[in-house]
Amino acid sequence: MSTCKDCAKSFASRQSLSNHRKRMHRDNMKVQNSGQGLSLSKQGQLFSDSLSKSSAEDKKRARKVIDAELMMNKPSKDVQDISLSPPAGKIAKVPTYNIASDESDSDTEDSGSENIEVPNDKKGQDSMLIDAFQKLYSHFDEDDLEMYNDILHLLDALKARGCVRGREYKRIKSILEQRIQLNLHESINSTVENMSRDDKNEILGLLRSMEKDKEAKKLMAVVKDYFEKEMELEDVLPLLDRLKDKLSALKLRIILKNVERTRNRVSKIFTRITNGSDKGEILNDLRSSNNITDEQYDKLSIGPHTLPSISRIIQGRGMYL
Question: Across-strand partners of 46?
């Protein structure tokens, strides 16, 4: 049994508690998260939680830095504190990379022709990665999955190079995950709501048509709890057997299972795309398991994507309309 610390109400599961807090105590949740910052060095260099959008140039450079990082030698195992001083040593050029962007073609045409210069000493390379991480995190947009994955990649690189200790790495990663999880749940819920609206209206209409049946009135309250994710479908279905109208009970069972399938499908698509490292493999798996259509596969293969754009594609509304 889970209890809400804001109103002391008890819930059967942590999911139910989470949904309740998002509906009833959203402001409190924002206050609790708003003060969290990041410290990556003994000097106390902070990366505060800015809500501003990332500049296109920061995103492009971060992608180039990540590509360059993949070209670097294996990192040293020695733990080293972050240094934000200018890189020292010789400069080495690495190959040019085409970076996907949501900007216009005229903006991206010039960006592909640039080279990024990588210091050939560890201190300079670390400084380059830290700078890219700082700029990207300071503009972190919780809807931008490409940015989220890029930040995690840079954080992993910093940990592997000994620039951030284990405890700090876990704390930073936890903050990032908390920030995107709230938007992820909201995206899932709003998408399911839009896709299930007709089914829900039909369910409620059937129950209202059986107003003389006392069991139907009881079922109405239970079904509404299910819609609010405060009750599992397996706890609702047995109650259908008590209805006098067996044909309507069968229809309700079919429609409720369809709502559940929609929930599971939408949740799987969002969570797999958000948490997976290999986008191509994930999309192939989602298509082969019939969670997305060929058309949705093609649209999702084109990036970058945000949570809203994924929602529109799942709903069949196109990418940007």
Answer: 39
The residue extents of the domains of the chain are 2-34, 40-164, 182-314
Scanning the structure block, which residue is given the tokens 């993949």?
70
Contacting residues for 121 by C-beta, under 8 A, at least 6 apart: 87, 88, 89, 90
- Res 32 pLDDT > 60: no
Task: Share the mean pLDDT of the chain.
Answer: 74
Do 41 and 54 contact (CB within 8 A), yes or no? Answer: no
User: What does the block give as tokens for 147?
Assistant: 């940015």
The amino acid at 32: Q
C-alpha distances (whole Å) from 48 to each of 127, 139, 178, 196 are 19, 10, 15, 38
Spell out the alpha helix ranges (H) of 35-121. 56-71, 105-111
Q: Of 167, 6, 315, 244, whose CA–CA distance to 307 is shortest? A: 315
Cα–Cα distance list, 302 to 179, 187, 255 (Å): 25, 20, 33
Please tell me the number of Cα atoms within 13 Å of 200 on its side-chain side: 15
Full-model pTM: 0.62
